[in-house]
Predict the 3D structure of the following.
Amino acid sequence: MARILVIFFMIFNLSFALDLEQAVKLALKNHPFLKQKFSELRSKRFDYFTTYGNFIPTLSFDYTYSKYRDTEPDYFSRNYSFSFYWTIYNSGQNILLNRIKEKLLKSSQNDYSETVLDIKFQIKKAYYTACANREILRFRKIQLKAAEKNFQMAEKKLKLGLVKRSDYLQAKVRLENVRYMLFQAENEYKKSIAHINSLIGYPLDTQTEIDTSILTQVEKEKIPDFRSIKKTAFHRPIFRQYTYDLEASKLRSIQSILSFTPSIYISYSINRDYSTIYGNSQNYNIFRIGLSWTIFEGLKRYYYYLSSKEDERFYRYRLKELKRQILLNLYSLYLDLKTSYKNLEVSKTLLKEAEHNYKQALGEYRVGKGDIISLVTAESSLANAHETYVQSLLNIALTKAILEREMGVEKLTEGEVK
């Protein structure tokens, strides 16, 4: 029933409410890139399962029909062969290959988990941005009403001869400027909603309603201690992914050394041959036990060993570089978040003072004590203060989202708070 309602909304382009949690669930369900990574993960799993085939013997059936011409007389032959082949010893290379594929599978599983974190961050960023754009749009509608009121007062006073025409023109310029800014805000809000719709798999023009109260909730949240942030981040899936890659490279180095060793195999085949020359069938069975050893093929295997050792060093340094980068990013984001909270307090104070200043300027202009420039300036300052406040909330929300992504957690408050 719920799916039918969603389809109904999509077909008729009706609006429906969508909170952040629902948006994340829809994005994880419908995002094509996540489905792509899931198929890649399944491919790695099936590739890992193929290594178990190396431990069991091979059974094969061969049939050959040969027709001989340009001979006197022409003749033909038929050959049947049913064979059993089993490598019973190869210095443990089959076990190593199985373990290498297992490490690569676990690496892919953690890579998929990292992709899930990326998708969650994308939808959080898009949702927070859309909320901010909607609040800015709401404030600009309020600005338009205020500018219209100022213009109407200036127009009435001009008719009564109480102000100069320049006052009227100043108010009109401000009104048109606010109207222009309103159109821009509407455009930005529509684009941000389209971004959300794209992530959750809905038509771009779906009128999705969002919950803007999520922006104000960030004011109440505390900042975790940096040591707790660092400790949590080092358990991210990407660290496990890089660790498994390193372990796989170590096993490949061992595998390259074992390529210098021989392998032992056994085989048994049942053969049936028929030729028109002899006019009868020949039946024979063959049992073999053999040793296969590539003694010399130049420096190929030696250079393969050197290459595998360099790969091992590469993955080791890659893991160290990852730790360095993430530690730096965490500390920078931690400082940015603390600064964003300070900026929020300043923006709230600025908004309160701008509201008081605008009321004062509006009252003075009504009774004829103030001029239009002071009123327009006060109204413009109030508008800027509103947007600064919204931008401060957005900065906190986005910084939190990035920090959560770097830590690999759903919410920043999952860590220990001071």
